[in-house]
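Troubleshooting: if your tokenizer reports a length mismatch, compare against these two reference records.
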Amino acid sequence: MFPVGALYCLMVTIKKNTEQEREQARRQVVEHYLAQGINTPEDLHRFITAITRQPMPWKRICPNHKTPFDYLANAFFSDYIHPMTGKYMGMVNQLVIASRGGSKTSTTAKINMLELIFKPGIEISSVGAIQTQAQACYDYTRNWIYDPLVGHLVYDSTMQRTVMNNRALYRQLIGTMTGVNSPHPNKLRADEVELLRSEDVLQEMYLVPMSSDQYRGSMDIISTRKFPHGIMQYLVEHAEELYFNLITWCYKEVSEKCTESRRGIRRKWMELPHPDSGELMKYKMYEGCVHCKLAFSCRGDLPQAQGYYKIDDLLKELGRTTKRTWLAQKECRRPGFEGLVYPDYIDDIGNPLSIVIPNCGIPEDWFVSESYDFGSDDPTAISWWAIRPDGKKAIKIQEYYQRNTTVNHHVQAVLKIREEFYMHDHRMFIWGDPQGKGMRVEFANRGIYIKKAYNVIDVGIDVVASMMEQKDENGHPQCQICERCVETRKEYIVYHFKPGTDKPEKKNDHTCDADRYGLVSTVALLRKYNFKESGTGTLRPTVTDRPLVGTRP
């Protein structure tokens, strides 16, 4: 009798064997693992190929990317302890970003099928964000568990409840509040969560998985990342604090191999922009790549691919979609940035433009604006801007960003930053949230006197946006931010309008609000009273002309 590895090779060698030979080999592979169990990733790959008649993509193409098989193996072996190391062979709580057409739903169904067969008594709930997604996952799962070689293991199957003879249980749910308020299974898998109608449904899902004596509780989420400020982007940004393990694969991990008949034989160097920096770099490709429209994205990688997705289909999709859609949904890069409050901050693929500059100090004779956005559970954000006396150039030199701490701690941090940048040598304007009267009093009691800032939101946003867009005499943006302002740079990339409105979303906006208070209030004041380069001019005493610290004037 053939060893299992040889039977597997016989089964997948389509051109050299008859259908009868391949089917006989498939039967022997399945019967072997039903009797002996699955103990290694190689066993898993052979069994899943035998049931589905399709080898799973397993080769990693892009740096730091995984494959559909990695996701499947991690999920299946999450309850298996390695006999040598004593550690779990897989991992729970996977957050998967995958491309359109990247076999997300079918891979989830394969995991469901494997656990139903090989894990007695396990309970699984699989959630489709919408009805059609849920139906597709159930159809895949049902087709495979009713394969003639394993169908005898099924006791009964409906979309609401599938039961195996080994007491394993599977429910297919729809992503609604009522749908996910189900009993507590060991495993919850959510497919295409980007399409959920409400984040409340996701919150409800967090409460579903539960461990048992045999199986660890786990929640796996898999989806294409479609929106710049959607559910998936939020999960990616907070993956660590939500206890998720991030996995990504793009179209290259599931694409078929680019053959010599398409690419040619001779190697050729091509100069293409780097996908992240945009800088031109040389890539070692093939002579046929010169005329291929996919070359800018492939960069010579597809000759190493081992998947199933047809390159002709990729070329058609490339011709029909925008670059932003392709980068987001096929290459799994961050989605396009439509709807940003400050679109001039970044380029088409999310790289900060010349608004971000190397760290610097405060130029001589420039004024300083110190502005506060108060928070308790939310962070307290404080911004320091160096502003030219004519109000036509501003540089953010430092930030403070802290939550859940005392006013005394804030004050000490402010005094330290003032001393570090010699701000006492410059004239200062101190502004704060007009709604934060209580906090302004608390700071005043400690010697920092904060005036109410100008706070007409749409006008303020227009002023900041126009300074980012307009150039100074050297061709640089009138408004620039030092590299050290890390939290500011994070928030500017995601600060966006509510869909269909001109109102900004009240989320990730703490440094943005502080900047608007200080920058707009100070610039408007300086431009109104026409300060000269020397810094001379007359201020109305009602604005702010108080000392930095000390007693009330």
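Reference record two:
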Amino acid sequence: MTTKTTTTFAPAPEGSGTPFGATSLDLASKGYVEEEYSASGTANRYRMNFTSTDGAGGTAGQPDDPLATAEVVDAGHPYTTRILVRRPTDADSFNGTVIVEWFNVSLSQDVDFVFAATHDYLLSNGYAWVGVSAQLVGTNALKQANPARYSNLNLDASNDDPAGDKLDAQGDVLSWDIFAQVGAALRNHGDVDPLGGLTAKHVIAAGESQAAERLTAYYNSIQPLCPEIYEGFIAYDRFNRVRSDQNAKVISFGSENRRIAFPKKSLPEDSANVRLWEVAGASHASLEEVEGYLDPQFLRNKILRAPDGTTLSLTAVVAECDTQPIWSRVPNGHVVAAAIHAMQLWLKDGVPAPTAPRLETDDSGQLLRDPQGRVLGGIRLATFDAPTAHNGAANTGPEGCSQVGYHIDFTPVELCERYGSQQNYIDQVARITLKAKRGRLPSFRRRGPHHRRSENGGIQRSVKGPVATTSSLPAAPPENDGFAVSISRPVAVIGAGVGGWGVELSAVSDVDGSA
């Protein structure tokens, strides 16, 4: 192991407000608690041996080999960052697996996109979740948003390579070792245990989009140096090409949107330990996670602002896209949650995750479509193949619109013309779902079961309640107006109507394949 774990944890300072990015969910009602800790130690600097054009880091001027193992340049660079922990309060409810999410910083702040997409499943199945502020963009935003709480954060180190040029295209030269050390310290901690006495049997790394790009580089270049820390990797849209000689398992979610945006970008190949699951009709994020989790979070964090200073949601930032309402209804979170569940079975029981059909393309890499313009191949959820809306994976318009997709809900007349009756619609959804279950692929599911051990040692099965509304959010940090990202164009308020039939199919399909 090249990485020596030096990380020690300490509670956040008292009386300094609320953790930035604290969840809007009522965790207590789900048997969970959220806590924030500082993580301090000394880190290595690495030479990653590849150039970067996509946010994955890498060393400028070095041979372009994204599969090469990193080289240690030097050690002993002090750092202090923060981690955010959401864990069961009862050890009997903990399933033994910790999801460690590399915070995405594309929007100039820490964002927990993986948790946003999968919180129903994670909180209903006893996982612990840890978010890591690994990059300077995130910690600088924290320090500006709440200096009293975060002024001690420090990820600074020289980005100069003694051999010439720079070590990291983003300047996050310590991020690799910080992420490794935090993962290791969750198992081997000092006096302060951020898991509150829970024993981590499996530790899985996760990240979305920009963070998944960083994890691609981590898997290829850092994982070979410290393979015992992370046993599995979950990439939400998505991993690039990865090496095939590592024992750690990989499941990468890939949206139709990313295939449209990057038709020639290299993809991970299925192998003994690697799976790519591509999803038809999926935009880069889906309506369910944005509307149900991310928009309230962005409003609370107060970093995205209009020119007049008005706080913006994520939806408001891209509200001027050409096709409305924005975001595809294909629920990405169902597939990402299914990937986490499959990873759990892979690590715990040795059951390999299933392979899935790829989205179909021609020789030039362009997606193939049916006469209605719908993409062929891929994982096909009932929301796409038995839809109540026309779901588009991409959109057009101002910056950012290409990622958000859209949904155009069918009118009641259109639904009747398509299905004839509500029962026929339900039958089609059930048929698609059961077909997916037979192949152990993701199906149509909102919430997973929460397993809580009863006094007699049995397992009680129940479904948890709805997400908290914006009005029930914890109070924002008192001095959270010090940092904002200004959005230059005007923002329109968009209302999204819901047309036709809504059906809860938890009795038909489960994320783990049980009825």
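Descriptive notes for reference record two:
- Residues 332-349 form the longest helix (18 residues).
- DSSP finds twelve helices and 15 strands in the chain.
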